[in-house]
Amino acid sequence: MRVSKQIIPDGTTLLLVIDQFEELFTLTRDEDTRRQFLDNLVEMVADERARVRVVLTLRADHFDRPL
């Protein structure tokens, strides 16, 4: 979140669009890398002070993977 405060102008919000989110589960073989990415993403969106919003796209046939 500290970086977002430095790069996002005051009074604005960053919209982060992550397309093909299923590739995190289909192409990323290293569980530690996947877990770190997910942990950082969750931490960012859970922080009410963060001025970042996230939209994920995911193929319907991969809905079960992030669950």
Keywords:
two-stranded parallel ribbon, single chain, 67 residues, 15% strand, alpha+beta
Gist of the model:
The protein is of the alpha+beta class and 67 residues long. It has three helices and two strands.
Structure, explained:
With 67 residues, this protein is α+β, with helices and mostly antiparallel strands. It is built from 3 helices and 2 strands. The protein has helices spanning 2-7, 23-26, 31-46, and strands spanning 14-18, 52-56. Strands 1-2 form a two-stranded parallel sheet. The chain is elongated and about 40 Å long. 0% of the residues are buried.
List the helices and strands and how they pair.
Elements: H1 2-7, E1 14-18, H2 23-26, H3 31-46, E2 52-56
Parallel strand pairs: 1-2
Q: Helix/strand-derived class?
A: alpha+beta
Q: What's the helical proportion of residues?
A: 25-40%
Largest sheet: 2 strands, parallel
Number of DSSP strand runs? 2
| Quaternary form | single chain
State the helix count: 3
Trace the largest sheet across and list its strands: 1-2
Query: What's the order of the H and E elements?
Result: HEHHE
Distance between the termini: 25 Å
What is the general shape? elongated
